[in-house]
Structures are given as structure tokens and as C-alpha cells.
Amino acid sequence: MIPVLFFVSVIIFVLINLVPGDAARLFLGEEAPPDALAALRRELGLDRPLYVQYLRWVGGMLHGDFGHSFKDNRQVLATVLQKVPVTAELAAAALLIAWAIAIPAGVLAAWRRRTAVDYFASAGALTGLSIPNFWLGIMLIYLFAVHLHWLPASGFVPPAEDLGRNLKSIVMPAFVLGVVLAAFVMRQLRSSMLEVLSADYVRTANAKGLGERVVLVRHALRNAVIPVITVMGIQLGTLLGGAVITETIFALPGLGRLAVESIYGRDYPMLEGVVIFSAFAILVINLMVDIVYSLIDPRIKLAGGTS
Amino acid sequence: MSLAVEALPGLRRRPAGRRGIQHLARRFAHNRLALGGLILFVLILLTALLAAWIAPASPIKTDFGAYLQPPGPRHLMGTDELGRDVLSRIIFGARASLEAGMISVGLGIAAGLPLGIVAGFYRGRLDDVLMRLTDAMLSFPQLILALAVAAVLGPGLAKAMIAIAVVLMPVFMRIMRAQVLTEREREYVDAARAMGAADRRIIWRHLLPNSLAPIVVQGSLNVAGAIITEATLSFLGLGTQPPTPSWGSMLNAAQQYLTQAPWMSFWPGVAIAVTVFAVNVAGDGLREIWDPRTR
User: Is B80 helix (H, G, I), strand (E, B) or coil?
Assistant: First the structure.
């Protein structure tokens, strides 16, 4: 994990340094006097060699100093952390919706393989993967907010303030975010169910006269779901990437919207912070998933030293 | 000499991999659904190429006398805020989407393949470094990395395509590396080497053709994702720039007029969904043939 994080930081550093013009000019604007520019460059350490800048940047992050916003001088880390709960709630709700759709659909499709149920579920999943989520969001806003007035078109109410209104403000974005994931999970679950259903122990369970539902859920699903959870990291990446777009459309004050705002405002320290934080979050959660696995499934061992 | 060569398994005149691709193509033709997806995709491609002849009106000519008109006989999909014909813009917009889908995947393959071959064939330190690098790139959420690259490069279709290619590159690199790692241990490579073939010949004549099938499969599926990513970047204002029509930027402009002119938001999304669906169906067909377990 450490080498990966090292490369993550290098990639971001290189990327940001490819930006034409330097931080001092971006910060002070095009018409800044040259001596003020020089002073700020010295203050920010931009007059030092690149490797020194890199080491200072990484060193700062290790001490919790992610720098300051170009726009309003806010602390990057504090701002990022402040946005996390919104994105976390959105992602958790989306995950819940996704699994609630995908598990029954995946199990049914595999169980009733090559029937109308399977074709319907599989075609539905393919459609879910093909619909751009920002368009789905816009269409839902039109239907439920503009037309039916059931839900607010945008905005966010913190759960501590009013849970009911919080859920109302999160349900559409969570659904939009959950659909793609549901499609993805359903397809994986279906294929791993198919594999498991042809395994010997499932045949044995069937042969000894266990009810179909017991075999399906207790024997097949339990094993089939393992590889699906393993790709949690990919799902998390999809979620965070999707959060960028859903938060923008529904005006939720989360990480994704922060990323888009810092791109529009050319607020590179903030963008750096969001990107490195999301990469870090994905790595940490993947590591946790791996550890939980090695505890649940004794066949999986953690190899020492590898990422 | 030539007799002895013929007797060695897998060391025929024609490299085995061409047969792999041919096999893929033959089986694909028998998969009706996948073939349907491909035909639909070709139709959309033709629409994009022949846009100037098919479109009923100019995609950029404004008509302030006819702005925000609902769909009707004169404008089948209505008009936008500047009175431009939405149907014509959708037809011309296919160009940006298809270009982005195919070129960015092509670029990703062009960058990923050589690196994957080098890493898998020569192993060693370089391989370690390249692998950690791809680990790092893959640990970013794809869209966020694409956004960051696009933000650094600045707005524009070509830059958006580069951003997407950067994100796809590690995927192809890893597939190619894995493929080379298995192929290089095969007997025919030993045989070729025993006959004195140089590395370059082994790579070009044997490893590359034999490893193409999974790249084609993965690439076709990535075209679908790339089309959506381009639309997303354009929607956020980082892709295709006005007045050139693209489905993503049309959706961006349409957002303001959602209440008055919902058709402006409806049709570009349908266009994206249909195109991506066609590519996904075709790509799925290829994957099923390649990896029967997914059936």
C-alpha cells in the first residue's frame, strides 16, 4: 500500500505541475506586480527545485497539512473532511439501493437461467449500464420535482436537522448513483451464481432434499457473493466518480461537487486534496475488505509485503 | 528444415493468434444479439459520417424566430434556446461521441500495449515500477482522474480524449502484461527461441497476435465507457466546446430550460443510451465468446 500511495502522490504532483503558469500567478491573478509574485513564490517554496517542492508537499501531508485553497484560503484538509459525511451518506444509500436491486435480480436470473426472467433482468442490467447517470438524474428531477412536486429538485438537509427532509433530499441522487452499481453487481452476481450452482456441494444439498430456497440462499448465494464483494474497490471508485456528477446535478455539498468547483475555480490545492483523499479512501477500504476476508474465509491469506 | 518446423506444435506459418481473432469473429457472427448490437453501432457510425446529408437542418444555424419550440412536424425533436434544430444537432453530435469513444480507446491501447509487452516480456525492475504505477492509477476513481487530467489540459474534445486515454492506459497495460506472461512460457515461444528468433520477432510474430483477442474484447467494452465519460466531461463543460454539437454539451445547455423545454434534455440522453447500449451488447457478445464462464 505504501508504494502505491507513493506513486499516487507522484502522479498528482506531476499532474499539477503540468498546469501552465505557476501557483503564485494563479493565486494573485494576471496583473500582480512582479515583486509580490516573487515574494509569494519564495513563501510557497516555488523557487526551490522540484524534488524539494515534492518532499515539502508530502511532508506537509504527513503532518496533516494539505495546503490552503487558492480561492478563500480555507484549509484543504478541513474542507475535504467537512464534505465527507455528505458523500458518505450518499454512497451508503446508493450501495444499499444497488444491493437491494442487484441481489434478488442476480439470484433470480441465475436460478431461472435462459428464461424470460433472466433475459429481462440481464437486459435491464445492460440498460442500466448504458444510461448516463447525469441524464437519469435530470429526467428524475423533471418527473418527481418539476412535474409531480414529490421531491425537492436539489439541495441537501443534514440528517441531524430533519431526518425526513434529509431522506427526501438524498433519495433521488442515491437512486441515480445506485442504478449503475446495481447493474454492475447484478451481472457479476449472476455469473458467479451460475458457477456456484453447478458446484458439487450445491448438487449434494439438492440431492439430500433441502428446499430450493435454502440451497439457493444458504449454500449458493453465500459463496457466490464473495467474489462480488471482493471487487468492492471498483464499486467504490464507481461510487466516488458517480458522486461527482450526482452531487453536481442535485447540488449536494459533498466531495464530488467540491472537486468540480475546484476545477472550475482552478483551485488546484483543493483539487489535489480531493483526488488524493479519494484514492487514499479507496486504498484503505480495500485493505479493510482484504483483512475482513482473511478473517471470514480461511482459504484467503494475506501475503506479506505486497500492496 | 521446413518439415521439422511444421512438426513443432503451434509453430506453423500463420501465428496461432490470427486464428484466435478469426475464431472470435466467426463465433460472433453466430451470436444474433451481439450482431444486432454491432449492426446498430454501424448504423450510428454511418449517421455520423453522413450527417451532412441526413440532417434536416444545420446544427449550428440559429433561428431566433423559432426558439424553444416543442417537437412537431417542422422540428421532429423540437428546437433549442437559439432556435437550432435538436434532431440535426443530435445527428451531428454523434461525431463527437463516436470519435471520443473510438479514438480514446485506440490511444489507450497504443500506450498500454507496448508498456504491457515490455513489462511482461522483460520482467525485472522496470516491470515492478510499471506495475506499482498502474496500481496507483487504478486506485483513483476513473472519472475523478479523467476530470483532473482534463482540468489540467484544459477544455476541448481532443484533450478530453487524451484524458480518457490516460485513464484507460493502465487497464490495457495490465491485460497485455498478463497475456504476455502466460504466452511467453508456451512451447512455441521456446521453439522459436531455439531456432534463433530474436526478441523482436517473437514479440511481433507470436506474442502480439496471440494476445490480441482479450484486448479486442476489453477494448470494445471500454468504447462504451469512453462514450459516457466524454459525454460527462462535455456535460461539465470540459469536453466538446460550443457551437460544435455534442450530446454531453447539449445536455449541459438544456439543464437551464428543463421546465420550459424538457425535450432538449430528453433526446441527447436517449442518443447516448442507445449508442452505448449497442456497443455494450456487441462487447458483451465478444466477451461471452472469449470467456464462456460469463454466459
Answer: coil
Find the largest Cα–Cα distance for chain A.
Answer: 86
Residues A203, A65: Cα–Cα separation, whole Å: 58
Shortest alpha-carbon distance between residue A19 and chain B (Å): 5
Distance CA A101, CA B57 (A): 43
- Whole-number Å distance between alpha carbons of A257 and A156: 12
B169 touches A: beta carbon within 8 Å: no
Which residue's C-alpha cell is 503532518?
A63
With contact defined as beta carbons under 8 Å apart, do A189 and A222 qualify? no
Matching residue, cell 441527447 = B268
Contacts of A18 in chain B (CB under 8 A): 152
For residue B286, count CB atoms less than 10 angstroms from its CB and return exposed for 0-12, middle for 13-18, buried for 19 or more: buried
| Cα end-to-end distance, chain B, whole Å | 44
* Grid cell in block for residue A12: 498528482
Q: What does the pLDDT look like over B45-83, one tens digit per residue?
A: 999 898 888 878 777 777 777 777 788 777 777 777 777
* Lookup: cell for B61: 444555424
In contact, A256 and A244? CB cutoff 8 Å: yes
Distance of alpha carbon B116 from alpha carbon B181, whole angstroms: 10
Is B85 strand, coil or helix? strand
Distance of CA B220 to the CA centre of its chain: 6
3-state SS of chain A: helix, strand, coil percent to 5?
Answer: 75, 0, 25
ipTM comes to: 0.83
Task: Quick: pLDDT tens for B215-242.
Answer: 888 888 899 999 999 999 999 888 888 8
Q: Could you say which of B139, B152, B259 has the minimum Cβ distance to residue A146?
A: B259
- Sign of the CA dihedral with A217 first, then A218, A219, and A224 last: positive
| Contact with chain B for residue A138, Cβ under 8 A | yes
How many CA atoms are closer than 13 Å to the CA of A3, on its beta-carbon side? 11
All cell numbers assigned to B5:
518446423
CB-based contact A61:A276 (threshold 8 Å): yes
- pLDDT for position B102: 92
Choose among A132, A195, A274: nearest Cβ to B232: A132
Check residue A303 and report its DSSP letter.
P
The count of C-alpha atoms lying within 13 angstroms of the C-alpha of A2, restricted to the half-sphere facing its C-beta, is 3
pTM above 0.80, yes or no: yes
Cβ-contact B72, B78 below 8 angstroms: yes
In this complex, is the C-beta atom of B262 within 8 Å of any C-beta atom belonging to chain A?
A: yes
Place of cell 466546446: B241
